[in-house]
Structures are given as structure tokens and as C-alpha cells.
């Protein structure tokens, strides 16, 4: 005799058939449990399916029709609403599929146990076992459902729009929206205006991300190592001063810089460039100058966090290693190269990667400084627009929702691939995987 589970025992092997339990569970939820003589559980499963079909059956049918056709009568059918109903129907079907999977799995598992001689515990003990096993799931289920409807559903909607022709000229309810497959992506890479704009904006987005982020990391690293030097006095005061830009809200700083670099009345031109060099630099009207200023502002905004991050990590590096390096005759550069930098990167690599992905979608500074301008001939995006600010303009200025969704999908893929690849390459990620 052996014990299985809580207060359950094996007796002689019976002729109970797990296949019958599986088939009955597939036919209707709970039938397999009833076959296993687990009556309370079987009734609960069956009642859940009945309530689900009564409550959502008609809505799911309508939703599937809606997402398939996106409407048939212009002025009557609203394609966007039908798309939303269809996506909700798909989510409900997914919930039902998961429920059915566990229903079948439970029936087959218990049928096999019964066949091997398992005797079910009494009702009170069954309820206690059920509570012990499902308690974590009962606590996390509300949050999981909220995540589905607050994150997954909007993401599904955005992805779906990328494969439609939803724009100003195909706007319901006056007009119907149609599925167009990969047509939007094709236009983005083949049609002259869209191709030129995409290449220009994408190139600047990569340059902006790499240069601005690298500058802020480099400056933060340099200042952190410099202040951490034993010869530097008043470290607390210096660190406080260097972190001050972080204390000011970013949007306030951006607006102040926008005023300072204004071509007409900004302090940079009127108080510095004209008196000293007798020139007026077109900071806001020439894309090259505007891009340089944006990189400078982002470096100013971003370095305090990197400085604080590196300063904290530097405190954790043992002084014994530096003393051992001194005994071996290592130079300052060799100690930085072989002791300081590896430890800093090991501890902060994931956060540094996040800095790159954040700046890739750094909408605030681009839009607040000059709204992505100045305008560029032959493009439907500004000279300093990055992909995310271009998406904003397509959505709210020109109502080209489908193309905005297509570009958003590309952004998501780029950021996801980059982040996953870099995380897997970092030493911290590899070390964690070996724990």
C-alpha cells in the first residue's frame, strides 16, 4: 500500500477507463468528472460551461462575424467596434480553451488514478486540498485578467489596425474598414514618400538612440569615477550638485532649453553667439543644429541617473583588489580597464540596455523641444522626428491609424529583438541563469 496526495490510498487496480473520461470531458465539461464519481467537481465544471455559453455564446458568434467581415453595410456597421468585439471574442475563446484544457486534464488524471486503485478523499478533505493547491492562483487571477484587458487587448488592437486601411478616408461609420494584409508595410518600403520618410526617420532614430545614450553613459561614468577618486574632497557636496539636473522635472528642463535655443529671442543666440561670434545659429529651423541640441539636452537629462548608478556600484568594489593591482605595478588605466569597468558593467548592464530602449522611444524630448521639427521637403515627418513621434503625428494630425499601427509594430519588434539579444549577452543574465 502506498500514499498518493493527501490522505489518498491505492487499493486493487480497477477497470476504470481514462479514455472514456477524456471523451466525456471533451463532449461537455464536467462529464468526465461525473464519470469519475467526482460529482461536486463535475457539476461545477458543467455549470461553468453552461453559464459561459448562455452569457457569451451569442456575443462570441457576433464578434467572430465582426472581425472576419469588419462590417457589410456602410453607415450601419461600425468596423472599429466590430474589430473590438471580435478581439474580445477571441480572448473569451482563449479563456474557454484554457478552461477546457484543465477540465480534460483533470478528468484524465483522476481516471488514471482511480484505475490504479486511488480512493477519493471525503468532501471536507477535498475542499481543503483544493484550497491549498489553488490559493496562489486565486490571488493572482484578478491581476492576470486585468493584465489581459489593460495590456494584451490594446496590443492586439494596435496589431490588428496595422493590417487594415483605417485612415481619414476610410473612417467608420461613414465608410467601412477593410483588411489589406501587408499592404501598409509594402507602402512603407516601396512608395516614394513613405519610403523616403521611413528611411530618414529610422536612420535618425538609430543615431539619436546610440549617440545620445552613449554620451549620457560616458559622461555619467567619467564623473562617477572622477568623484570616487580618493584625492577628491567634498564628495557629498559634489555628488549633490551633479545630481541636481535629475531633481528638476524633465519637461521643465526641455521647455527652458527650447526657450534658450530659440532662433529669435533665445539667450544662446542673443547673449552668446551674436556678441562673441556675430552669428545667429538656426537652432530650431535647421535639422542638423536641432539634432545636435537634442543630443546635448538628452545627455544633460540622462547623465545624473547614470552617475548615481555608477557611484553606488563603485562603493561596492573592494579596495583590496586595487591594492593588489598596485603591488603588481598596474597603472590607473589598467586598474580601470580590468577592475572598475568590468564590475560596473556586470552590475549595471541590464539598466544600461534599458537606457537605450527608453531613448529609442523617447517621445517627450523630441516633441516638447520642437515638435519633431523643422519641416523637411519631400517627407511627412519633421527633421528631428523619431519613429514614436512620427507615429503620434500620423495618429493625431493626419488620422492615418493603420500606417501608425504598422510603424508601431515595427518599433515593438526592433525594441524587443534588441533587448532580448542584449540581455542574453550580458554577464549578469548568464550568471542568473546558472543559479
CATH superfamily of the largest domain: MetI-like
Number of helices: 17
Please trace the helix and strand order, writing H or E for each element.
Answer: HHHHHHHHHHHHHHHHH
**Into which percent range does the helicity of residues fall?**
over 70%
Identify low-pLDDT runs: 1-12
The structural class is mainly alpha
Distance N to C terminus: 38 Å
β-strand number? 0
Most strands sheet? none
The CATH architecture of the largest domain: Orthogonal Bundle
CATH topology of the largest domain: MetI-like fold
Report Rg.
Answer: 31 Å
Please tell me what the overall shape is. flat
Q: Strand share of the residues?
A: under 5%
Membrane topology: Multi-pass membrane protein
Subcellular location: Cell membrane
Organism: Amphibacillus marinus
InterPro entries: MetI-like, MetI-like_sf
